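Lab notebook page, bench 4
Experiment: in silico fold of construct C2
Operator: M.H.
Input chain length: 360 residues
Purpose: comparison with the prior construct
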Amino acid sequence: MSANQRIVAALAANGFGQLVTIGTQLLLTPLYFHHWGAGLYGEWLILSAIPAYLALADLGVSSAAGNEMAMRAGAGNLVGAQQTFRGARSVARMAAALAVLLGVVLALCCMGLGWPALSHIPGHDAALILLMLSLQVALGFSGSVVQAGFRCAGFNALGTTWANLARLAEALACALALGLGQSALTLCAATLAVRALMLVWQWALLRRRCAWLFQPAVPADPHMLRRLLWPSLAFMAFPVAYALALQGPILLIGSLYGSAAVAVFSAMRTLARLPVQLTNVLNNAVSPEVSRAHGEGDLGKIRRLHRTAWALTAGLGLLACVALGLLGPWISRLWLGHDHHDQATLLWLLAVSWEHRGIQ
């Protein structure tokens, strides 16, 4: 498969992924408001924001390792790619153990110290939710290694498609739990079970389609962590900024204005982020090809890919942002069904902010 064919396939897979993201957000948000109310939904968002920072436990090694695997495979060094893959698996296991340990600490703080202060979710349920959310983060480390394996083997579209199907299955589990009137604890347990089952399937698929990553067995690269530490820390800047930008305001608004304000802010931000999520389709499709081109030493191809992706991202993002600014207030009233959830000024500010970040 040529680079253009891989990009087209990745575009289709990432397009499907963005449809899943946008569709589930547009579907689930009104369901949360309808079945739980703004107060309970806001507390769920606060609890979900806390373990999100545990995703930093691998220090960005999974992302850096995934790029190195793609570069080594692009250069024909399959043994080196396999060694990096095995090293990434070891780092993922250690990061998962650390995330679970910190999840236990968070659960104990919730039960012993009453933090965070909640009024709609019982303290015991909140502690179990924090623990299960940390388990979801731990599974996510393994999922990142799976995706890196698909990328380096040239099956980025296949891996992305199944990752998106897993997210869709989790969203459907949420919708079912909400429709049946289940508690936040039951909803969290359902999504954890779905994530675990889908991850097992993705590992089995990777073993079948990319058998060379597993056989013949080679030892993990003993110098991988030392070599990738600085690139990993650079990669970690993205999830750190992402966590601060997405979860930081949730915690701050919750502490200052309460859980209901968190729910309203999150809904407006969901609308404002739609343009950026659309442009991510292109960026996610081009990224693996940039890594492969780097492994091949083709700097001209890297420049062409970067210029094209930036121009399309800026143009499409600006067009979508203007459309959202004009139609957003009407959409929010139609979407949530309550006039007091219409925050036109907030929506405009968030839309401009996310468009600026999308083209950087």
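Observations: The chain has a mean pLDDT of 83. The radius of gyration is 21 Å.
Next step: discuss at group meeting.
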